[in-house]
Amino acid sequence: MLIALGALLLRLYYVHTAIVDHPIHGDAVQYYAYAWNLVHHGVFSGALPDATTISPDSFRDPGYPVFLATVLGTSSPDTFVDRVTGMQCLLSATTVWIYAVLARRWIGFPAAIGASVLLAIWPHTITLADYVLSETLLGFLVAIALVLADQAWRRGGTWRPLAAGLGFALAGLTNAVMAPFGPILAAVMLWRVRSQRRLWMLVLLAAIVPLAAWSLRAMAVSGTGESAGDRVKMNLVQGSWPEYHAAYLFSEENANAAAIMKTIDVEYRLLRSDTPAGMGRIVDRLGREPVRYIGWYLSKPLELWGWDIGIGAGDIYVYPTYRSPLLMQPLLAGVVGALYFLSPFILLLAATGAVMAVGSPGRDAPGMRLAAGLALWVTVVYGVLQSDARYSTPFRGLEMMLAVFAVNVVTTRLYHRKRLQNGRNAS
Asked: What keywords tag this UniProt record (predicted)?
């Protein structure tokens, strides 16, 4: 609780000190438009507020726009951003607390301290709370889903598994990358744990129903605009181009970058209008330089779990940000510099922890197997689509838990080995 309180104070200090240049631009424009149309027209639409026609669509997932609509409905436009970032500071700090609880249950008290401190001071989780973007809300919902799933398999009942399934559904409705994970988890557990079939059937039901309802709504409004499926196709095309990040950043200044962006858009339009032809064009391009593209896809997990935000201002910032205390305050700048140096080693420890969790025998570390499975799922999906350090921010708690889990396993084994050796020497 004290670490979570420290995380809250740190985030509030950051958002009240840093200045984001034009906070409503980029993806935030679309999120704001959806929230505005929900509040003022009762329609889920990405049409800009001054549009003459407000047509429903399903291009964006509904979770974050609904969250913004609840804030917008009770605030003036002048205070909207401040209220959103304040709420996100609270959500981010609560996420730190939830991962501390999970780490204590799944690994132990020292691990809970280590994981929660790392998550509390991790720069990306601080800076993302100051943007009108969905990552902070998604991270909170993922943590909620995990702790509810833990409660369900520990204590059973009816409402706990239903709540766990609903938690995964809400995360999926905030970011479609999470949508299949809850049902897949429930289906696997139904197959493997026959003694808890009723429990996991309830999780499966609660995870599927909200997603199915949203899918039916999306089918009903198909043809009125770009859909969620179109957004997947867009990310698939963009993620297949190693040059995309650089071309995106310099398309207004460099003719070659602008030409690459135009080619990417042509591929997306073809994939959207004629999926087989679009896929054929992508496969043909990849086939002309197989070694290069294999290397690119193998490197994408490092893009995802790395440090620099590629689609944005760079480093730990999505939008241009001035007077950042993470740069100007000496102590915080020193912490950020240390974490930048340690980040590859933390990632390596997390990967080691994931392997250890998956390979643990019997009933050892079931929670950590869940954490490893979710981290692997995110890595694979974003590896196929578009990878960026921004997108891993909601899942950094998993990385910290897996890293401290690896340290815990190694130190525990060394301790037991030393005790065994001392016992042999004494005998």
From this structure: Membrane, Transmembrane, Transmembrane helix
* Per-residue pLDDT, 224: 56
d(CA 180, CA 192): 18
Residue 24, SS3? coil
The span from the CA of 395 to the CA of 403, in Å, is 13
Q: Are 116 and 100 in contact (CB under 8 A)?
A: yes
The vertex-146 CA angle with 8 and 83, nearest 5°, equals 35
Q: Does any domain span residue 233?
A: no
Using CA atoms, how far apart are residues 219 and 130, in angstroms rounded to an integer?
34
Give CA separation, 21 vs 24, 82, 210, 323, 388, in Å: 9, 14, 36, 11, 21
Q: How many CB atoms lie within 10 A of CB 372?
A: 25
**CB-count burial class (<10 Å; 0-12, 13-18, 19+) for 384:** middle
The three-state secondary structure class of 87 is: helix
**Residue of 347, 335, 339, 342 whose CA lies nearest to 399:** 347
Q: Give burial (CB, 10 Å; 0-12/13-18/19+) of 75.
A: middle
Domain count, the chain: 1
Q: Report yes or no on 97 lying in a domain.
A: yes
Across the strands, what pairs with 314?
Answer: 317
Q: Which tens digits make up the pLDDT trace of 352-396?
A: 999 999 887 655 568 899 999 999 999 999 999 999 999 999 999
For residue range 133-190, what is the model confidence (pLDDT) as tens digits?
999 999 999 999 999 999 998 888 889 999 999 999 999 999 999 999 999 999 999 8
Domain that holds residue 308: 2-226+289-426
The type of residue at 61 is: D
Q: What is the pLDDT of residues 90-143, one digit of tens each?
A: 999 999 999 999 999 999 999 999 999 999 999 999 999 999 999 999 999 999
Query: Considering the domain boundaries, does residue 257 fall inside one?
Result: no
Q: Note whether 316 and 307 are within 8 A (CB).
A: yes
Q: Rounded mean pLDDT of the chain? A: 92
